[in-house]
């Protein structure tokens, strides 16, 4: 398991490193997130960080989420990058991206009490809007491609 996480982390770092934009990368803020998950059927909540742009319009935004329901609890740590199609912050703007995440699933005791972990891959689509106070609001759909929940709908924001 450790080897999978290490290999995934190194792959992500090597992929991102050459594209880092000198003027746009660095901690910008954090925000809460929450929503619903399909397969497993859960409610999830968590937080994310904004590390700015790693390339033109491409933002690195890792997150952590905890889900409950469907006789299990889940914990996910995701490294995600998204491309923002429109630069206007005062209007709803579409974005798309992808991510790699460590997904840990713990079944309830009556279902065996087993815990498993997988390195997953997902695709992301969403809408984001800047607010008058400088914060942001987003609506996001996340599709599990490999060893991740089938679908997540998330509402979140950024606090600066």
TrEMBL record:
Protein name, per record: Outer membrane beta-barrel protein
Position of the signal peptide: 1-21
InterPro entries per record: OMP/PagP_B-barrel
Keywords, ordered alphabetically: Signal
């Amino acid at each position: 398991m450790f080897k999978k996480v290490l290999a995934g982390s190194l792959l992500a770092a090597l992929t991102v490193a050459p594209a880092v934009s000198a003027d746009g990368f660095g901690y910008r803020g954090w925000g809460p997130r929450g929503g619903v998950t399909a397969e497993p059927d859960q409610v999830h909540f968590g937080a994310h960080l904004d590390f700015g742009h790693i390339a033109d319009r491409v933002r690195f935004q890792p997150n952590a989420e905890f889900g409950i329901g469907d006789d299990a609890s889940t914990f996910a740590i995701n490294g995600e990058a998204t491309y923002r199609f429109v630069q206007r912050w005062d209007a709803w703007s579409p974005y798309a991206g992808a991510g790699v995440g460590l997904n840990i699933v713990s079944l309830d005791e009556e279902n065996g009490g087993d815990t498993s972990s997988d390195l997953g891959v997902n695709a992301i689509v969403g809408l984001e809007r800047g607010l008058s106070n400088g914060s942001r609001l987003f609506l996001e759909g996340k599709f599990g491609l490999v060893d991740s929940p089938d679908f997540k709908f998330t509402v979140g924001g950024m606090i600066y």
